[in-house]
Amino acid sequence: MEKYMGARLYGFKAGAVLPAEARALRLAASRLLAGEKPAVVNAWMNSHGYRTTLDNPWRTEGLVNTLSHPQLAGLDKNGKPIEGAETILSVEERHKLLALFAELKKPTTEGPPDYEYLLSGEEASCDKCRHGMVSNRVKAGGPPQYRCPAPGPNGTSCGGISITAERLEGTVAEQVLAELLRPKAQERITALLSDVREELARLRAFVEGTEAEGVRLRELRQEKVLSAVAYEAARKALRKQAKDAQTRIRFLDQMVVSVPSGGVDDLIAWWEAAPVASRRALVRLETEAIRVLPGRRGRGSHPDDRINISWRKPSRAARAASAGAKDSVDVEI
After folding, report:
1. Quick check: 66 pLDDT over 90?
2. pLDDT in tens, 131-171
3. Please, are residues 42 and 58 in contact by the beta-carbon 8 Å criterion?
4. What is the pLDDT of residue 300?
5. pTM, to two decimals
6. What is the percent of the chain where pLDDT is above 90?
7. Strand 16-17 vs strand 12-13: parallel, antiparallel, or unpaired?
8. Does pLDDT of 193 surpass 50?
9. Which residues lie closer than 8 Å to 188 by C-beta, 6 or more apart?
10. Predicted local distance difference test score (pLDDT) of residue 149
11. Any idea of the CA torsion for 151, 155, 158, 163, to the nearest 10 degrees?
12. Upper half-sphere CA count for residue 192 (Cβ side, 13 Å)
């Protein structure tokens, strides 16, 4: 816990209960015991302005560790009552939470289920070498993670950075949803989608035009305006441009997303219920790049310190066109 919360236990100061922090923990515990997932409760804590003792956003792991601390129920590290101790949770509530957390961590005899990763090498990359991160499990039964590939013959990757999927995806989700809660966020999303639509139209027109351009090149070759070498070079260049355009079209097609307007609870509910493809589309739409930085040796580091997000900015024309947009974004391309 200390590596996330600092020296002071959240909810206490010099052994005395801090009412505002205690209330936050009690509400979080109630939500968990009512059946909400830890990640959802963690997002709720952050969306309501609750911060750790180091004034950082909460992480699911840190919240679970804090709620598991025996002092919240007036117990010492051996589970014995501390005479005269103030409490935030009852002993029974703590036991229920511990049982809940243990159940969530319990492995199955069937092995780990298939995991659908939120990000790919197109979104997340290594900050040291800029190579796209790959997603996998290092060993059977291990946690899903992202890592920079080991150096290969081409030498473009360093293999020096890895991070668990829970930490990377959780941090990205929190920051992406936080961006949607900023003023004029819906106008910004509309403007971004307008830029996507415009680029898609331009690329599709280019791809359609490459066939006619190929015909023109063949005619120039037949008329001996182009030499065989020049013709072949031009033909290959045109094919590469068309292939690159089609690759970009496939990427842009996956940035189309319908995001509801509303408050924090609406956005969190949408994120939890949306297919991974829809969540990935929102991440792609909002971000230019997600860089994963090295962890610090010998001590814990908050996941936010390891992830650097560059946010996509809409064009000036798209921003102007999106002014006064409707309250929900639902764009079909």
Report:
1. yes
2. 999 888 777 667 889 999 888 767 788 888 999 998 999 89
3. yes
4. 55
5. 0.56
6. 29
7. antiparallel
8. yes
9. 182, 314, 319, 322
10. 87
11. -70
12. 26
Q: Quick one: three-class SS letters along the chain? A: CHHHHCCCCCCEECCEECHHHHHHHHHHHHHHHCCCCHHHHHHHHHHCCCCCCCCCCCCHHHHHHHHHCHHHHCECCCCCECCCCCCCCCHHHHHHHHHHHHHHHCCCCCCCCCCCCCCCCCCEEECCCCCECEEECCCCCCCCEEECCCCCCCCCCCCCCEEEHHHHHHHHHHHHHHHHCCCCHHHHHHHHHHHHHHHHHHHHHHHHHHHHHHHHHHHHHHCCCCCHHHHHHHHHHHHHHHHHHHHHHHHHHCCCCCECCCCHHHHHHHHHHCCHHHHHHHHHHHEEEEEECCCCCCCCCCHHHHEEEEECCCCHHHHHHHCCCCCCECCCC
Query: Residue 112 is encoded by which pair of tokens?
Result: 């780990």
